[in-house]
Amino acid sequence: MLDPQAVLSGQTRRGASGGVVAVITVSSVCLGLFLGLWLLVGGLSFFVAALLSMVTLVPMMAFVMALDSLEPEPRYLLVATFLWGAGATVALSLILEAAGGLTLSAFGAASDTRLAVFVAPVVEESTKALAVFGLFWFRRNQLNGITDGVVYAATSALGFAAAENVEYYIAAAMDGGAAEMGAIFVLRGVVSPFCHPVFTAMTGIAVALAVRQRGAARVLLPIAGLLAAMLLHGMWNGLAVTGLGGIAVAMLIVVSVLVAILIALSRDRRRTIAQIDTCMRAYVPTGLVTATDLAMLSTLALRKQARVWARSTRGITGFNAMRDYQQACTKLTMLHDRAQIGLVSPLDFERQRWALLTLMRFAREAFLGTTHLAVPMVSAPWAQRYVPQQQYVQPVQPVQPVAPVAPSGPGPQFLPPTHPLPQYAPSTSAGQWAPGPNR
User: Fold this and answer.
1) Which domain holds residue 163?
2) Is 276 among the domain residues?
3) Residues in a beta bridge with 436
4) Which of 19, 165, 227, 412 ranks highest by number of CB atoms within 10 Å?
């Protein structure tokens, strides 16, 4: 059976690999031990600290997920990345920072300021970045642009910040009571909740850029990004200990970097939308993409409108099918992009392209209705007339192997439809989306 989620993630089957499961398991154990320790130490203040941490985490994570809405990353990878930041990163940071403190003490240079400026940024940014480096090493196909790099980096950083905030809030409550906890919450949870994501985003952007490079640049870019994250983090810590004036200067610098990142992400989104339009135009002759589909794919608002229409006409099946169709179009564009820069072999390119086109074909029939015939593939050896089914089900995979082809072509050719397929066109009613005739 053809699993839509497996196809969209570029795998042969749904679900996380053994390595991802191991990361989730180890990180969860580390997080459980860390929180359990602070529960014993803090008592009732632990629950207040956890609540305050969630108050910051939820909106920040929602914002990161909004950045990921055009080309959603596999949820299990985001979960693994978040847990790595919240669990494994925290545990490694505690151990390595303690070792760094002992090293400074051995040279007679130990102080809280030196630890905050020189040890903590190096340790924390390195351990948070391991999640992004892991994707770079083992799941490079998931890094299709700087937006993906920022999403994974920010997810790891938010996990770390959420766990670290619990520690800070409880420590503040034990030192100065509710007033001290409230002051730390305002500083960390209200004024500067974006600091850790901004720091680690430097590494994420550099790693995402390195994916498209060759030679020394592929190695040097991630190192440069990590160094930039460490320097920015160290600058923040160094200025923060000097008082309100230093915090104001540090805040100005970090906010400026944040604005620059958001501008870069906006440009990356426009670039991706332009790529989708260019790539999908080559598939218009197949009948799987039409002119109004191109318009629908061009903005997130129209994509949402199309999903609302599909749900109103075909229920949850139509909604899921429309979502799969939209994501398949985006993933197919990313596949072409990776092929153009040599990141996927011709055989893998054709295998993934066939799977995505098949998903588009079945999904399209699901949200249009079973009375409309799909357009069968005729250039492949397994081509046959497709008989619509009564519901949106997973199609059977072909048994014949896919022949390697060059990745420059628009894809397998299809027979013209036996009758016009409906397209999507905005209706006259605001906020509605309805099928219209071919043009």
Assistant:
1) 10-271
2) no
3) 423
4) 165
